[in-house]
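User: ok so my PI wants both of these folded by tonight, can you help

Assistant: No problem, let's get them done. Here's the first:
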Amino acid sequence: MKMWSGRFREPLDGTFERWQRSFPFDWRLLPQELAASVAHARTIAAAGILTPVELRSIESGLAIIEKKAKSGGTEWLKSNEVAEDIHHFVEMTLTDEIGPLALKLHTGRSRNEQIATDMRLFVRDEIDATLTGLSNWATALIDLAETAGDAVMPSYTHLQRAEPVLVAHWLLVYVEMTLRDSSRLLDARKRMNFCPLGSGAIAGATLKLDRNIASAALGFDAPTSNSMDATSDRDFLLEFVQTLTQIGLHISRFAEELTLYSTAEFGFLDLPEAFSTGSSAMPQKKNPDLTELARGKSARLLGASTTLATLIKGLPLAYNKDLQEGQEPVFDAADTMRGLLSVLPGFTHALKFRFDLMSSAAQTGFLNAMAAATYLVHKGVAFRKAHEKIGNAVRYALDKGCELGDLSLDELRQFGEEFGEDFFAGITLAATVDCHDVIGGTAVGRVKSAIGSARKRIDMMKKARAAGGTQVHV
């Protein structure tokens, strides 16, 4: 029997009925639906709708459904061909367990508020899982940075070699990204942590319910403030998926750099074989499948975000059936991110850099030109003039086919009398790196300090996650 069939004379068209069901994908909300049902049962019991005995019977029946789901797995859920949605499934299954008493559970609530609550609980759980995955990846990056020590590589602007930096300094860029992403997720979690239960279909429950009971039981900060907003709001879904998209973009940038650096043209790293595949035609190939797939997954996340934004943009208040289409993109985005963060930490730990080639690349192509100009600045030359003098010296060395450090002092002095014997010590690889001795710079001491700071910030983020996290149990 449908949850809404009382006023209808004709049965649903069979094809339409199968087409409009959401149970084939919202079955995965069972844990959230059960938890919310327990919370609602306690709320209506406090309002005198259920006796203590009835409340215990309903709670017991919901617990049995949870146990069956754990033992039967997803196939037990997916095999149901009658349930219209997860709410209908729980009502039918609970009726099988405890009889007609199950029908009293829907007193004082609507499926509009149920799905709004279930999705908030789902997103909250996925935010927590994503935060854990991000901290694991960030830790792997920090470990790799620490292992890299004082190894140097070229940095790039416009994909042209720019200045030498520590490999660790480059890796810490992605740690900064994960920290920003984590803070966005924590902000989003705080913003959406309000309970829609008690909002009814649109105007609020018709019974005088204490909404704080369900809110506290489910670990929300408070009930939502407006019933129309509570049942129609999907901002929290969009914000969640948009943040996952941003994380995906960061992962994609990392993947793109590693894909480039693993080519023979760069040769900066050996791809770990445990995370690579070969060619069915070319025996010599080792392909960067993980990094290429990671780039591709970012497109999938962006697609989910675009779908949600397009879905919501023209909807009148309050609930509309269109919103059912917002569930699958969220599920897919959450699954995609879980997959990415399941492989990234192990892959990152397995990376092996060719530090000798990276160092060699950092010592060719005049990457010490900025340090050379800085040398002249310390000699009292205005930076604009210093820039010009070193540019002239670079042109001279290019024509000669050598690096700045290969020029003689006499050759250098044709560009300025400020050049002295100490110039050569000031443009060595070590000196070029260490001249960036500012907060956030690539000097060895600064990067070592940054590694320690990054570990502390990751720990702080974990503590913030633990403080805000609430596990929902039936």
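One down. Here's the second:
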Amino acid sequence: MPNQIDSRALISPSAQLGENVKIGPYATIGENVKIGSSCVIDSFAQVLGYTEIGENSHIFSYAVIGNIPQDLKYKGDRSFLIVGKNNKIREFVTINPGTDKDSKTIVGRGNLFMAYSHVGHDCIVGDENVFANSATLAGHVRVGNKAVIGGLAAVHQFCSIGELAIIGGCSKVVQDIPPYSMCDGHPAIVCGLNSIGLKRSEFSNEEIRILKKAFKIIFFENHVLSKAKEIVRETLPCSKEIDTLIEFMAFSKRGVKKRI
């Protein structure tokens, strides 16, 4: 289908548009932007910089995607923002490219960014995550798949958020958030297993039962991490989920806050 572009939209002649793209009045598309097929860019939205938007994504009014990073170290070098397909980017969302020359911010597919949420420079965001209103990632944050970041939660730079984790609204995240966890607080700590999220992702009752036992050993008993890993390996069946959890803990750079 032909593109539907309002005559009042501000589109650089060098921007690359796929097929069946809809662009509303007063939307701005910069000269180095690539918009995939079947995307919708609503009125007053801005897509700037060296930014690529994957097919079938929807950018709502007043979102600003790809503007220069909010980083004092930025010296004006070319950097990139790559956004995958099927993303919904709501009103007033900001997503920034990398800071250093040729660096990238990367966003996967199927994410929902609710109004006023923010993804800082050099972040890597996976697939099918939900960022509630005003959820904020500082620079260099990594997010796995199917995580939920609550409204007004703020994530410190260089933190990692594991897959299928859920972070409570207004949380202050200064250390890593393990996969499958439910975290909350100031600072955020592990409160338990994200059982509802696991059920929605079709984990079996047995898989959830085993993960609950692993969480109890690692996060709620008074063991150092090396001992907790040893107990988990010796007492629980091997599984991909256990491997994912233990590997995340082993490679955590900022550590994980426990109740004990």
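The longest strand covers residues 188-193. The CA atoms of residues 181 and 193 lie 5 Å apart. Good luck tonight!
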